[in-house]
Structure formats: structure tokens, C-alpha cells
Write a structure and sequence with these properties.
It contains ten helices and 13 strands. With 310 residues, the protein is of the alpha/beta class. It has one domain: UDP-N-acetylmuramoyl-L-alanine:D-glutamate ligase (3-Layer(aba) Sandwich), CATH 3.40.1190. 47% of the residues are buried. It catalyses: D-ribose + ATP = D-ribose 5-phosphate + ADP + H(+).
Length: 310
């Protein structure tokens, strides 16, 4: 079983020609609301990856924004451990999606900040816990410490970007971050290879957007070029990667296979609008994998060079 402990938001999404610059007003077009939040998105991705029981610890307000989130998680067969806040509203995110599929996101955490150390359920039966940084850092650190003490594999998606306490990192088995988050975590602006040398964690996975991903796992480097797709909305692509990766690893998949599954799922998430609504099923991921050739030597060399590994 996997426990995802983290954030859940209701996303307010507007499509526009481009993302506004500071001080600029942009006329949008379509407006929709979608269940989102990094934690909830990753829980849905884990559950949809198939063959793994996924639970989620989350905090919601006592308001009209909570039921759509709960319904989406339940529809994905995620088992809920809900903390109900009467003092804070359900978390929200305001997202502008441009015609070239880029996005700008502002999050109002609300009830997500109500999650505390004492809310962690019993970890008996769980193989992995997956967390993010949209809940209080001290809560994340407490959960990691408790899980590590009980031999539960600790996976942390270090997003949004911030410096991480050394004590927290010591309890993390799998660290997942993008390039900006890698720089913030290491406080270093060098190559990906140089930044990886500064993190003392058994497994570090760096997502690289349309380029793919790079991982250092038990001293070995693995590269996975991205699957080519026509993007519509990149919201939740990274969350989909995280949830799928941890689900694959919980099944006992080897790191190269887990990276390939996660990359395929993340690519497919870019082809639909919204967060949880864009997360693919296990069958959709399997279909893409079956129809895709292995990464070419040229693509691997290009990715290796970009990461500063050549």
C-alpha cells in the first residue's frame, strides 16, 4: 500500500492566448474548475497506475470546495484519511493555461496548512509514503521521520521549490524534483550532474520537462528521454510522474522500467486539460509504451550531454 500525505485543492483554470506578464491584463476564454493539489493529483496517479492500494491523508475545509475533491479521489479508488478544518477554507489554485500549454499557478493553501504530525495514521501495511511541500515543512519532516523509523520507504517531491533541512533529507529515500527545485535544494547553479553530487539520498530523480528525466539510483545513473506528444495543458504532468513512479517501484519494478512508465504517464497527462482529469489509466500508459520504440542512442546522448554527464 502507498500513503500519499499532502495537499488537495480546487483548481480554477482559465485558458488564454498567453500567460500575463506583471501588470498585464489578458482576456481569457474557457473557465472551468478541476480537483487538484499536488498531493491529491499524485494519489490519483498512483491509484490509476493499477495493482496498488493507494491511501491519502489530506486536510479540507468545511465548505463547498471540498466535495468535488473528495468525489474525484473516491472515483479513482483512493482511500481517504480526511482532516476537516473548521478554521481554514479548502485549498484553491488559480491557473492560467496558455495556448502553447504552459501555465502559471498561484496557490492559496487554506486547510492544507492544518495538517499536523498527530494526523499521521498507523503505517502498518504501507510500503511507501509520498509527500510534497504544499503542507507545513515541519509536518512533512515529522511524517518522514516516523515512516523511516518504521521501515516505510519515504518519497518526497520537493515542490514547490525551497531549501530543505538536512534532517529531513536524511530521512528521504527517493527525492523527486525538477530543475528549478534541484537548484533550490542544492543552492547550486551548476549542471544537473554537479547538483546531484550535492544530494546525499539513495535515489534522486530529476524531471526535465520535454527533455525527459535523469535519475541517480544507488550510485547508478539512468536516463529516460521524453515521449513526444502534442501538449494541451502541462498541469499535473509532474504529479502524474511522481505518483506513477512510486506505484511502479512499489510493485518491484526496476528503476529504468519505473522511469519509463512514469514518463509515459506524464506525457499523456499533457494531452488533456485539467489536473486529475488529465491523469491517464494504466491501460492508456501500457498502450503508449507498447507503441513506442526504445529511446534511440542519439536521444540518450543528447540527454546525457544536457545533464552534464558526458
Amino acid at each position: 500500500m502507498i500513503l500519499v500525505a499532502g495537499s488537495a485543492n480546487l483548481d480554477f483554470v482559465v485558458r488564454a492566448n498567453h500567460i500575463p506578464s506583471p501588470g498585464e491584463t489578458v482576456l481569457g476564454r474557457d473557465f472551468k474548475t478541476f480537483p487538484g493539489g499536488k498531493g491529491a493529483n499524485q494519489a490519483v496517479a498512483s491509484a490509476r497506475a493499477g495493482d496498488v492500494s493507494t491511501h491519502m491523508l489530506l486536510a479540507l475545509g468545511d465548505d463547498a470546495f471540498a466535495p468535488p475533491i473528495e468525489a474525484s479521489l473516491a472515483d479513482a479508488n483512493v482511500n481517504l484519511h480526511t482532516v476537516r478544518s473548521t478554521n481554514e477554507p479548502t485549498g484553491t489554485a488559480f491557473i492560467c493555461v496558455s495556448d502553447d500549454a504552459e501555465n502559471a499557478i498561484t496557490v492559496a493553501p487554506g486547510a492544507n496548512h492544518s495538517l499536523r504530525a498527530e494526523h499521521l495514521p498507523a503505517l502498518v501495511g504501507f510500503s511507501h509514503i509520498l509527500m510534497q511541500l504544499e503542507t507545513p515543512l515541519e509536518t512533512v519532516a515529522a511524517y518522514a521521520k516516523a515512516a523511516k523509523a518504521q521501515s516505510v520507504t519515504v518519497a518526497l517531491n520537493a515542490a514547490p521549490a525551497q531549501a530543505l533541512p538536512a534532517e529531513l533529507l536524511r530521512n528521504v529515500d527517493i527525492l523527486i524534483l525538477n530543475e528549478g527545485e534541484l537548484a533550490a535544494t542544492t543552492q547550486h547553479q551548476g549542471s544537473i550532474a554537479q547538483c546531484l553530487e550535492r544530494i546525499d539520498a539513495p535515489t534522486v530523480v530529476v524531471t526535465l520537462g520535454h527533455r525527459g528525466c535523469c535519475a541517480r539510483h544507488l550510485g547508478q545513473i539512468y536516463l529516460q528521454p521524453a515521449f513526444p506528444v502534442d501538449p494541451v495543458d502541462t498541469t499535473a504532468a509532474g504529479d502524474t510522474f511522481c505518483g506513477t513512479l512510486v506505484a511502479a517501484l512499489s510493485h518491484g519494478a526496476a528503476m529504468p522500467d519505473a522511469l519509463r512508465q512514469a514518463s509515459a504517464a506524464g506525457a499523456l497527462a499533457c494531452t488533456k486539460l485539467g489536473a486529475q482529469s488529465s491523469i491517464p489509466t494504466a491501460q492508456e500508459v501500457a498502450t503508449l509504451l507498447a507503441s513506442s520504440a526504445p529511446a534511440s542512442a542519439e536521444a540518450l546522448t543528447e540527454l546525457k550531454t544536457y545533464c552534464g554527464l558526458s
